[in-house]
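Good morning C.,

I know you're traveling, so I'll keep this short. The sequence:
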Amino acid sequence: MEELRTEIRAYHRLADLQGTVLPQLVAHGRGCIEGRSVGVLAIELISGEAFLEPGEMDKRPVLKELTTSERFACVKALAAIHRRGVVHRDVRGANLLFRPSAGGAGRTPVFIDFGFAWFEGEHKRKAMRTERADDYEWLQGAFEGESKYA
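The tokens, ready to paste straight into the viewer:
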């Protein structure tokens, strides 16, 4: 439940980015499955593509096949998230989707799963800088196909 609360807080903090670099939050609340109370988060369906298939969620994809503009879009999207005081802290292939760009030219990155996010003002500045750098390091390694990211 803590991860769900963190994700909801991130969506609220990033409200102006919803529907662009993160999905639109549709609803959240509590539900019941097989007699157990569970947290529910409903987001828009992203009709694009993921880099990982089900069953590969722990693998790190190589993003070398992205165009230069798509790579730049990933960095810009992450920077927009960081500027709003949110550090994702779980950037990986399973949490990066792409939707078709408006006009059909290229793809737009969409970050999902903010359950481990940190928020500006709640952690020491040095720790926040380190976590932001880790977000970018994953992207850089995945772009270059470094073995530790493959």
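Safe travels,
E.
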